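Handout, section B. The chain below has 286 residues.
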Amino acid sequence: MSSNIRLRLVRAALSVALVAVLSGCTAIGSYLPHTLNASAKPVVGDCWTSTVKTADQAAAWTAGGAVGCAAKHQLLTYAVVAVKSSKSNWRTSDGNLDDGIATAAYRACDKKFWKAFPEAPDNGRLARYFFVPPTEQWKKGARWVRCDVGVFKTGSLAEDPVFASLPPTVVTLQKQLESTPDVFANCVTTTDPSGDTGPYDDPDAVIADCTQDYQWRFESDFTFPDEADAPYPTDDAFDAVDQAKCGDAADEDGSDWVVYVPTEDQWAAGSRDASCWFLGAPKPET
Protein backbone atom coordinates (compact mmCIF):
# COMPACT_ATOMS: atom_id res chain seq x y z
CA MET A 1 0.00 0.00 0.00
CA SER A 2 1.50 3.33 -0.96
CA SER A 3 1.18 6.67 0.71
CA ASN A 4 -1.59 8.84 -0.67
CA ILE A 5 -0.12 11.94 1.00
CA ARG A 6 3.51 12.98 0.97
CA LEU A 7 3.71 16.72 1.39
CA ARG A 8 7.06 18.43 1.83
CA LEU A 9 6.50 19.95 5.25
CA VAL A 10 8.27 19.75 8.56
CA ARG A 11 6.71 20.72 11.86
CA ALA A 12 7.97 20.25 15.39
CA ALA A 13 6.38 17.02 16.60
CA LEU A 14 5.27 16.64 20.20
CA SER A 15 8.27 16.27 22.40
CA VAL A 16 9.65 12.99 23.68
CA ALA A 17 8.76 12.18 27.27
CA LEU A 18 11.29 12.41 30.03
CA VAL A 19 10.83 12.00 33.73
CA ALA A 20 13.19 10.85 36.48
CA VAL A 21 13.18 8.05 38.99
CA LEU A 22 13.68 10.33 41.98
CA SER A 23 11.24 11.30 44.71
CA GLY A 24 8.03 13.24 44.51
CA CYS A 25 7.18 16.49 46.33
CA THR A 26 9.81 17.70 48.74
CA ALA A 27 9.51 18.00 52.48
CA ILE A 28 8.21 21.26 53.97
CA GLY A 29 11.67 22.25 55.20
CA SER A 30 13.14 22.50 51.72
CA TYR A 31 9.88 23.27 49.94
CA LEU A 32 8.94 26.60 51.53
CA PRO A 33 11.82 28.66 50.06
CA HIS A 34 10.64 27.81 46.56
CA THR A 35 7.15 29.08 47.24
CA LEU A 36 8.59 32.40 48.39
CA ASN A 37 11.30 32.89 45.80
CA ALA A 38 11.05 31.65 42.22
CA SER A 39 14.80 32.10 41.77
CA ALA A 40 15.78 29.81 44.65
CA LYS A 41 17.55 26.62 43.61
CA PRO A 42 14.83 24.05 42.81
CA VAL A 43 14.70 20.49 44.09
CA VAL A 44 13.36 17.29 42.60
CA GLY A 45 9.61 17.00 43.06
CA ASP A 46 8.83 20.72 42.90
CA CYS A 47 5.48 21.47 41.22
CA TRP A 48 4.82 24.54 39.06
CA THR A 49 1.91 26.22 37.34
CA SER A 50 2.63 27.11 33.72
CA THR A 51 1.22 27.56 30.26
CA VAL A 52 2.90 26.02 27.23
CA LYS A 53 3.89 29.49 26.03
CA THR A 54 5.55 30.30 29.35
CA ALA A 55 7.50 27.05 29.38
CA ASP A 56 8.52 27.42 25.74
CA GLN A 57 9.80 30.96 26.08
CA ALA A 58 11.58 30.90 29.44
CA ALA A 59 15.33 30.29 29.55
CA ALA A 60 15.34 31.15 33.25
CA TRP A 61 12.13 30.69 35.22
CA THR A 62 10.40 33.94 36.20
CA ALA A 63 6.77 32.81 36.49
CA GLY A 64 6.49 32.51 40.27
CA GLY A 65 7.51 30.04 42.91
CA ALA A 66 6.69 26.37 43.17
CA VAL A 67 3.22 25.46 44.39
CA GLY A 68 1.95 22.78 46.70
CA CYS A 69 1.79 19.54 44.75
CA ALA A 70 -1.77 18.90 45.94
CA ALA A 71 -2.77 22.00 43.98
CA LYS A 72 -3.31 22.00 40.22
CA HIS A 73 0.02 22.18 38.41
CA GLN A 74 1.35 21.59 34.90
CA LEU A 75 5.09 21.04 35.40
CA LEU A 76 7.07 18.71 37.65
CA THR A 77 10.79 18.98 38.36
CA TYR A 78 12.16 15.49 37.72
CA ALA A 79 15.85 16.34 38.04
CA VAL A 80 18.23 19.14 38.97
CA VAL A 81 21.54 18.85 37.14
CA ALA A 82 24.67 20.97 36.77
CA VAL A 83 26.46 22.33 33.73
CA LYS A 84 30.05 23.49 33.42
CA SER A 85 30.61 26.93 31.97
CA SER A 86 33.16 29.66 32.48
CA LYS A 87 30.93 32.26 30.87
CA SER A 88 29.97 35.14 33.15
CA ASN A 89 26.49 35.29 31.62
CA TRP A 90 24.33 32.67 29.97
CA ARG A 91 22.88 35.36 27.70
CA THR A 92 24.42 36.10 24.33
CA SER A 93 24.76 39.64 22.96
CA ASP A 94 21.26 39.35 21.48
CA GLY A 95 19.79 38.27 24.82
CA ASN A 96 19.29 34.59 23.98
CA LEU A 97 20.53 31.51 25.80
CA ASP A 98 24.06 30.59 24.72
CA ASP A 99 24.03 27.57 22.36
CA GLY A 100 26.79 25.75 24.23
CA ILE A 101 25.05 26.13 27.57
CA ALA A 102 21.72 25.11 26.05
CA THR A 103 23.27 22.00 24.53
CA ALA A 104 24.95 21.00 27.80
CA ALA A 105 21.72 21.56 29.75
CA TYR A 106 19.64 19.58 27.26
CA ARG A 107 22.06 16.66 27.26
CA ALA A 108 22.25 16.52 31.04
CA CYS A 109 18.46 16.50 31.40
CA ASP A 110 18.08 14.07 28.51
CA LYS A 111 20.49 11.60 30.09
CA LYS A 112 18.38 11.52 33.25
CA PHE A 113 15.31 10.67 31.23
CA TRP A 114 16.69 7.88 29.09
CA LYS A 115 18.34 6.21 32.07
CA ALA A 116 15.02 6.14 33.92
CA PHE A 117 12.57 5.59 31.05
CA PRO A 118 14.08 3.82 28.04
CA GLU A 119 10.56 2.63 27.10
CA ALA A 120 9.08 6.13 26.75
CA PRO A 121 7.15 6.69 23.48
CA ASP A 122 9.03 8.68 20.87
CA ASN A 123 7.59 12.14 20.26
CA GLY A 124 4.80 11.52 22.72
CA ARG A 125 2.54 13.81 24.75
CA LEU A 126 5.14 14.25 27.48
CA ALA A 127 7.07 17.46 26.93
CA ARG A 128 10.39 18.29 28.56
CA TYR A 129 11.85 21.65 29.50
CA PHE A 130 14.92 22.99 31.21
CA PHE A 131 15.57 26.28 32.97
CA VAL A 132 18.91 27.85 33.90
CA PRO A 133 19.46 30.09 36.97
CA PRO A 134 18.43 33.73 36.82
CA THR A 135 21.17 36.00 35.48
CA GLU A 136 22.11 37.38 38.90
CA GLN A 137 22.56 33.86 40.31
CA TRP A 138 24.54 32.73 37.27
CA LYS A 139 26.95 35.65 37.72
CA LYS A 140 27.47 34.53 41.34
CA GLY A 141 28.47 31.04 40.18
CA ALA A 142 25.18 29.09 40.11
CA ARG A 143 25.27 26.41 37.40
CA TRP A 144 22.23 24.31 38.28
CA VAL A 145 19.64 23.44 35.65
CA ARG A 146 16.03 22.61 36.48
CA CYS A 147 14.63 19.74 34.36
CA ASP A 148 10.83 19.70 34.12
CA VAL A 149 8.19 17.56 32.50
CA GLY A 150 4.70 18.50 31.30
CA VAL A 151 1.95 16.63 29.43
CA PHE A 152 0.07 17.95 26.42
CA LYS A 153 -3.69 17.64 26.93
CA THR A 154 -5.79 15.42 24.72
CA GLY A 155 -8.45 17.37 22.89
CA SER A 156 -6.27 20.47 22.62
CA LEU A 157 -5.09 21.72 19.23
CA ALA A 158 -2.07 19.86 17.89
CA GLU A 159 -0.70 23.14 16.54
CA ASP A 160 -1.35 25.03 19.79
CA PRO A 161 -1.54 22.52 22.66
CA VAL A 162 -2.25 23.24 26.30
CA PHE A 163 -0.96 21.40 29.33
CA ALA A 164 -2.93 18.80 31.24
CA SER A 165 -2.78 18.77 35.04
CA LEU A 166 -0.17 16.43 36.47
CA PRO A 167 -0.26 13.96 39.36
CA PRO A 168 1.26 15.12 42.67
CA THR A 169 4.57 13.28 42.38
CA VAL A 170 7.13 12.34 39.77
CA VAL A 171 6.93 8.75 40.95
CA THR A 172 3.18 8.61 40.22
CA LEU A 173 3.74 9.95 36.71
CA GLN A 174 6.55 7.47 36.21
CA LYS A 175 4.31 4.57 37.24
CA GLN A 176 1.60 5.75 34.85
CA LEU A 177 4.12 5.82 32.05
CA GLU A 178 5.45 2.37 32.90
CA SER A 179 2.01 0.77 33.17
CA THR A 180 0.38 2.32 30.08
CA PRO A 181 2.97 3.99 27.82
CA ASP A 182 0.46 4.28 24.97
CA VAL A 183 -1.45 6.88 26.99
CA PHE A 184 1.51 9.18 26.40
CA ALA A 185 2.08 8.37 22.72
CA ASN A 186 1.45 10.90 19.94
CA CYS A 187 -1.86 10.56 18.13
CA VAL A 188 -3.88 13.14 16.21
CA THR A 189 -7.41 13.34 14.85
CA THR A 190 -8.23 15.77 12.04
CA THR A 191 -11.58 17.26 11.10
CA ASP A 192 -11.55 15.21 7.88
CA PRO A 193 -13.05 11.75 8.53
CA SER A 194 -11.91 10.49 5.12
CA GLY A 195 -8.29 10.02 6.18
CA ASP A 196 -7.10 12.08 3.22
CA THR A 197 -5.81 14.90 5.42
CA GLY A 198 -2.51 14.36 7.21
CA PRO A 199 -1.93 15.20 10.89
CA TYR A 200 0.02 18.39 10.08
CA ASP A 201 -2.33 19.58 7.35
CA ASP A 202 -5.36 20.58 9.41
CA PRO A 203 -5.04 23.60 11.74
CA ASP A 204 -8.01 22.26 13.70
CA ALA A 205 -6.53 18.79 14.28
CA VAL A 206 -6.51 17.79 17.95
CA ILE A 207 -4.28 15.63 20.12
CA ALA A 208 -5.95 12.26 20.62
CA ASP A 209 -5.66 9.48 23.20
CA CYS A 210 -3.76 6.64 21.55
CA THR A 211 -5.59 4.09 23.71
CA GLN A 212 -8.97 5.29 22.37
CA ASP A 213 -10.27 6.23 18.91
CA TYR A 214 -7.79 8.29 16.91
CA GLN A 215 -6.91 8.93 13.30
CA TRP A 216 -3.13 9.31 12.94
CA ARG A 217 -0.34 7.91 15.09
CA PHE A 218 3.27 9.01 15.01
CA GLU A 219 5.37 6.02 13.96
CA SER A 220 8.96 7.21 13.63
CA ASP A 221 11.28 9.97 12.59
CA PHE A 222 14.38 9.72 10.45
CA THR A 223 17.12 11.87 8.99
CA PHE A 224 18.24 12.02 5.39
CA PRO A 225 21.96 11.11 5.42
CA ASP A 226 23.08 13.74 2.91
CA GLU A 227 25.97 16.15 3.23
CA ALA A 228 25.21 19.76 4.12
CA ASP A 229 25.69 20.91 0.53
CA ALA A 230 23.79 18.02 -1.07
CA PRO A 231 21.25 19.07 -3.73
CA TYR A 232 17.56 18.85 -2.97
CA PRO A 233 16.37 15.28 -3.72
CA THR A 234 14.17 14.51 -6.69
CA ASP A 235 10.69 13.09 -6.20
CA ASP A 236 12.01 9.64 -7.06
CA ALA A 237 14.78 9.96 -4.49
CA PHE A 238 12.31 11.07 -1.82
CA ASP A 239 9.95 8.24 -2.73
CA ALA A 240 12.68 5.63 -2.37
CA VAL A 241 13.71 6.84 1.10
CA ASP A 242 10.10 7.32 2.22
CA GLN A 243 9.22 3.79 1.19
CA ALA A 244 12.22 2.30 2.97
CA LYS A 245 11.86 4.35 6.16
CA CYS A 246 8.06 4.35 6.45
CA GLY A 247 6.22 2.59 3.64
CA ASP A 248 7.63 -0.91 4.13
CA ALA A 249 6.58 -0.97 7.79
CA ALA A 250 3.19 0.51 6.93
CA ASP A 251 2.63 -2.06 4.19
CA GLU A 252 3.46 -4.84 6.64
CA ASP A 253 1.04 -3.30 9.15
CA GLY A 254 -1.65 -2.82 6.49
CA SER A 255 -1.84 0.91 7.19
CA ASP A 256 -2.06 3.98 5.01
CA TRP A 257 0.74 6.37 5.80
CA VAL A 258 2.13 9.86 5.33
CA VAL A 259 5.69 11.18 5.43
CA TYR A 260 6.69 14.78 6.10
CA VAL A 261 10.02 15.83 4.61
CA PRO A 262 11.85 19.18 4.38
CA THR A 263 10.79 21.85 1.93
CA GLU A 264 13.44 23.04 -0.50
CA ASP A 265 14.09 26.13 1.63
CA GLN A 266 14.36 24.04 4.78
CA TRP A 267 16.76 21.68 3.03
CA ALA A 268 18.93 24.62 1.96
CA ALA A 269 18.95 25.79 5.59
CA GLY A 270 20.28 22.40 6.69
CA SER A 271 17.16 20.50 7.74
CA ARG A 272 17.27 16.76 7.02
CA ASP A 273 14.53 15.63 9.41
CA ALA A 274 11.43 13.70 8.39
CA SER A 275 8.54 12.01 10.20
CA CYS A 276 6.34 9.03 9.46
CA TRP A 277 2.69 8.66 10.52
CA PHE A 278 0.33 5.68 10.20
CA LEU A 279 -3.42 6.01 9.71
CA GLY A 280 -4.97 4.33 12.73
CA ALA A 281 -8.03 2.88 11.00
CA PRO A 282 -8.94 1.80 7.46
CA LYS A 283 -10.29 4.58 5.24
CA PRO A 284 -14.05 4.67 4.75
CA GLU A 285 -15.30 2.84 1.69
CA THR A 286 -16.07 5.14 -1.24
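Note. The chain has two domains: 28-180, 183-279. Compare this with the example in section A.
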